[in-house]
């Protein structure tokens, strides 16, 4: 019986079928993997390598250097390496290779990219106009907490009524690493929570899911995206709301130490990297604080 040789292209096709039919990945995702792995396969062919088991870490590092030498951006090179990693993880899971040569390969270091904070006006429009509809009470409470407290999406999802003190306007939040912190919230958030409590199905979680338990993270994402469309505000995610909260707090005069506590950061360095101070705030702070600022603005030397 004739059997097809199990070449690298054969296993690439297997992986792409796995993405299409088992993972139900989007056509865009499958296309990206297909392009990346085709380039990798061509490189291996030029190196005289025809079987996945013959690929080692040295070969992958050489290929990555070649990719970057072709002029690809660091982000594109990192994505291509991610495709190769996913392919080898698939092959190891299928028993095609005994070990994963891509597992320990470090990609190019990418520059830190922070989301752009919303303007105060855009944030206000998102929370008010964006929440009009059948789920207005719930959506308003979600957005008030994301923007009004800077909560991470997972922290909001897991929030329980027993951890919320509506009279004192304080909430106990379980952050990363199981570390608990106290987060105050404003009157707008309190009013939104009271409205939501009156119509919510009740239960342990402030925002329950459809099947019991806490609301799914992806459902919170959908709330934010739906509100952004209604309000006509683009580029909004739960993390953008967290960043907007921190930026607006900073512009309002909050110290980095206070923000560190609010955001639940282990290190102050994380908070410093996370925040971008607006040019307007820097200028205003200088004019308010520096002894030479007034004299310069009045034309004195």
Note down, in words, how this protein is organized:
Helices cover 56% and strands 4% of the residues. The radius of gyration is 25 Å and the shape is globular. The protein folds into 2 domains: 86 residues, DNA polymerase, domain 1; 166 residues, Intergrase catalytic core (hpI Integrase, Chain A). By secondary structure, the protein is mainly α. The protein has a 3-stranded antiparallel sheet, with no helix packed on it. It contains 14 helices and 3 strands.
Distance between the termini: 94 Å
Percent range of helical residues: 55-70%
CATH topology of the largest domain: hpI Integrase, Chain A
CATH class of the largest domain reads: Mainly Alpha
- In the CATH classification, which architecture of the largest domain applies? Orthogonal Bundle
User: How many extended strands?
Assistant: 3
Radius of gyration, whole Å? 25 Å
Question: What is the strand arrangement across the widest sheet?
Answer: 1-2-3
SSE-based structural type: mainly alpha
Mean pLDDT equals: 87
CATH superfamily of the largest domain: Intergrase catalytic core
Beta-strand content? under 5%
């Amino acid at each position: 019986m004739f059997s097809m040789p199990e070449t690298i292209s054969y296993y690439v096709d297997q992986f792409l079928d796995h993405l299409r039919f088992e993972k139900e990945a989007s056509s865009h995702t499958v296309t990206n993997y297909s392009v990346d792995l085709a380039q990798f396969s061509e490189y291996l062919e030029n190196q005289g390598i025809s079987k996945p088991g013959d690929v080692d870490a040295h070969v992958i590092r050489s290929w990555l250097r070649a990719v970057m030498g072709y002029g690809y951006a660091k982000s594109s090179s990192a994505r291509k390496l991610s495709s190769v990693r996913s392919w080898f993880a698939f092959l190891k899971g299928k028993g095609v290779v005994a070990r994963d040569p891509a597992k320990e390969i470090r990609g190019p270091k990418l520059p830190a990219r922070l989301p752009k904070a919303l303007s105060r006006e855009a944030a206000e429009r998102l929370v008010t106009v964006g929440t009009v509809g059948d789920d207005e009470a719930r959506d308003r409470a979600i957005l008030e907490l994301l923007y009004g407290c800077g909560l991470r999406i997972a922290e909001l999802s897991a929030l329980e009524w027993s951890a919320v003190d509506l009279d004192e306007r304080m909430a106990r939040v379980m952050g990363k690493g199981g570390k608990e912190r106290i987060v105050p919230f404003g009157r707008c958030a309190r009013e939104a929570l009271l409205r939501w409590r009156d119509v919510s199905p009740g239960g342990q979680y402030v925002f329950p899911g459809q099947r019991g338990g806490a609301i799914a993270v992806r459902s919170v994402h959908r709330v934010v995206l739906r509100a952004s469309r209604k309000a006509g505000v683009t580029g909004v995610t739960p993390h953008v709301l967290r960043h907007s909260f921190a930026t607006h707090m900073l512009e309002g005069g909050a110290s980095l130490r206070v923000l560190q506590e609010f955001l639940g950061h282990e290190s102050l360095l994380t908070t410093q990297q996370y925040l971008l101070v607006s040019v307007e705030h820097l200028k205003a702070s200088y004019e308010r604080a520096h002894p030479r600022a007034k004299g310069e603005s009045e034309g004195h030397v």
